[in-house]
Amino acid sequence: MTNTVELNQTEALILQALLAKAKLNGKKNGKPIVFSIQNDESLIVLHASSYQKLLDRLEEAETIAAINEGLEDMKAGRGIPADEFLAELRQEFGTTKAKRKAA
Questions:
Q1: By CB atoms within 10 Å of each CB, which of 4, 8, 46, 76 scores lowest?
Q2: How far apart are CA 46 and CA 29, in angstroms?
Q3: Whole-prediction pTM value?
Q4: CA triple 19-24-26, angle to 5 deg
């Protein structure tokens, strides 16, 4: 989740100056900019497109981890075949197997 901060004109000018300073130091490559106060890392600024790429990669990694977990469950015998699962669903909800329409 992100937080949005509205800046007044003075704050916006200060932020623009800080970003310009960071770019002058060779950090104009899409990588995060770390602002520190007395050598204490206190703020990281990331361009919106880089942030979105980071979120996309995180979602992909979480999806792959979930798939791998499911595969490990199946290998360990902690699952049931899909046709059995679907039969249980039909029985629980009182539905019948869907019939395929002829083409």
A1: 4
A2: 11
A3: 0.59
A4: 105
Tell me how far apart the alpha carbons of residues 51 and 31 are, in angstroms, rounded to a whole number.
10
In angstroms, the CA 15 to CA 13 distance is 5
Helix (H) or strand (E) holding 36: strand 33-37
- Per-residue pLDDT tens over the stretch 14-59: 988 888 887 755 445 678 888 888 878 788 888 888 889 999 999 9
Q: What share of the chain is helix, strand, coil (3-state, %, to 5)?
A: 55, 10, 35
Extract the tokens encoding 93.
Answer: 């909800």
Under DSSP, the state recorded for 44 is E
Answer whether 14's CB lies under 8 Å from 22's CB: no
Residue 14 is which amino acid?
Answer: I
Judge residue 27's burial from the number of C-beta atoms within 10 Å of its C-beta, 0-12 exposed, 13-18 middle, 19 or more buried. Answer: middle
* DSSP conformational letter for 70: H
**Which amino acid, residue 61?**
A
